[in-house]
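Attaching the record inline, Q. Sequence:
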Amino acid sequence: ALMAALQQAGVEAHPDDDGCQLEDVYELDRKGKLGAGMFATVRLLRHRATGERLAVKTLKLTMHIDGAGNVVGANLLALQSELYGLCAGRGHPNVLLLRAVHETKVALHLVTEICSGGDLLQMLLQLRPNGLDDGALSSLGWHLLGALAHLHGAPRHLAHRDVKLENIMFAHPHAVEQLKLIDFGSCASFASDPREDACPFTETDGTRFYASPEKLARCYGAKADIWAAGVVLYVAAAGVRADGRADTPAAELMRQGDLGSLLQQPRHGHFSDGLRAALEALLAVEVPCRPSAERAQEQIGWLSQRPPLPPARPPPPHFEPAVAPPPYEPSTQSASGAAGPAAGAPTPAPEERNR
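Structure, as predicted:
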């Protein structure tokens, strides 16, 4: 059923019994490993017919031994979330494009476009001690909110729930407008209550630094993604530490509604008035006061400084998944560090992302 849903979404999907193996279509670069984690490895490959360079994320479907020698099971809920999110994002230039899926008895191979520009954290580490300039920041904000507006909108109604620096990659180096939102292992549908200010989720999957006040209170919806986008913009403007670790005191001031005093600190003197206004909107503590992604693009004038949009992809066939979004399952770890319920599955390790 899952492979049929992928085919319906316009993805080239090959189940285990159709006779088309990954190696029949692509030449795998066995030395070109881009990353490896507990549940997946990411490698380079080349299309045999066209020569196009792509990436393949191989997810294990059976019990296996991880790099630390531990026996672990397949993270099937995260896998289902990942596929559902990538399918929902098809057609938008700022969501990682899933090209093909090849299934075997022990693994699932996800063939995607390659992001040679690395992720936003890597970019900011290279820029230290500075962050992005104001024009690049407005472009980053516009395209990130555009990807979220696409996911949140009808008929998808999908919340990403783990927007952060490491999950924003770039098709080419220094091309901020060609950002790609990745890693949908924590995404969840809110189609059962698609109201703008609805709070259908009680799980706290994701990273605490980017968590909105209502997310830590275990009653949140898609607007928690907007808060996370605001945190991303703040960090991209302020710059990152040498070790890449989060500025926890800054996040606490934001959640306490004290953004004003944070922005008055001398180290933020270079923030433009437009950026400050955007942060005040995206980081509004009260959910009804925080705009949706679509409204933010319409109402925040600073975002209009963006350069031209990248070329749009042809719209995919309408996606009605044959498999529903993953059901909510208890989680042993939450963004607050305490045990609690969680939808989907734990966030994949950073090493698993497509570099």
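Confidence is low (pLDDT under 50) at residues 315-355. Residues 134-152 form the longest helix (19 residues).

More tomorrow.
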